[in-house]
Amino acid sequence: MAYIERDTGKRFFICPLCSTEWEFTRIKCPFCGNEDQKYLGFFTINDDFKFRVDYCRKCKGYIKTLNKKYVGDENIELTPASTIELDIAAEKEGFIIK
Question: CB within 10 Å: which end of the chain, N or C, has fewer?
């Protein structure tokens, strides 16, 4: 899982097991290291810009991302269970979680 900071636009990953967070390059696939923007992209579902799927067409990997730019003061939980509809949409597009 990942999130994008509201103020800086930096991308951070979150370990779902221990909640450790670390910064990761925003325009880079975390699975294959691809940095070619023509293979990288993202999509949202149901016009919900809070959550999105960041994907790589090169390796077909994806990661679910919370964009804090679209989140107010509410506490949004970023968990695999709370974002299952993103997994379904990504798999329909041919992407796989790695």
Answer: C
